[in-house]
Design a protein that fits this description.
The protein is an all-alpha fold and about 210 residues long. It has helices at about 1-115, 120-135, 140-155, 170-185, 190-200. The chain has 5 helices and no strands.
Length: about 210
Amino acid sequence: MDSTLIILEKVDGFYNHAFSNLVMIVLGAIAILGIGMPLLINWLQNRRFDSDRKLLKQEIESALYNVTNEIISETEQNVSTRLTEVEARLTTDINRKLDIAQGMIFHLQSNTMRKHVFSWESRAVSLLNACNCYLRGKHLYGFNQLFEILIEVGKEWAPNYPITTDSKLPDLMEAVIAQMKELDDQGQYMHQIIKLEGIRGGLTYSDE
């Protein structure tokens, strides 16, 4: 009987000790989990945040790079288009001024011929060249002045003084007529065209 009690007491003591250890282990595990889990979760969240931040940074950098390239490309195209337009406008303006300047030279030449002894044909060539240049340069005031002089010279001299077959007059008259027709969008040159065509048709040649 005593031995049985002793055995029971030992068994009971063993289970009590084991249960106490189990309780300690469980409490320790709970304590560890209670402290460690938040830390683990926080660490995982930080890692995920770093990964998302890097990905977002890459996306932003890529978007900025694309937008920057688009802006640069559009700017280059706009600048190129603008430069082309400016260059074309300047070229047109320069050519127009050169035509006017050349027309003035022929104009002065015709005035010089009027004061000295030159054939009417030579003076008419200078007048036609001046008219042609003024038309190309859109210097219509100068053209209108010279054209009336040209018609007076033609009416006075063309019927009585024949020209040679290699004369430049017919071709120059045709060039001036063609330019007037090109600019005649509202019929403003109709009467002048008729006048010059009349003189052109009345030309006579010395070797006919």
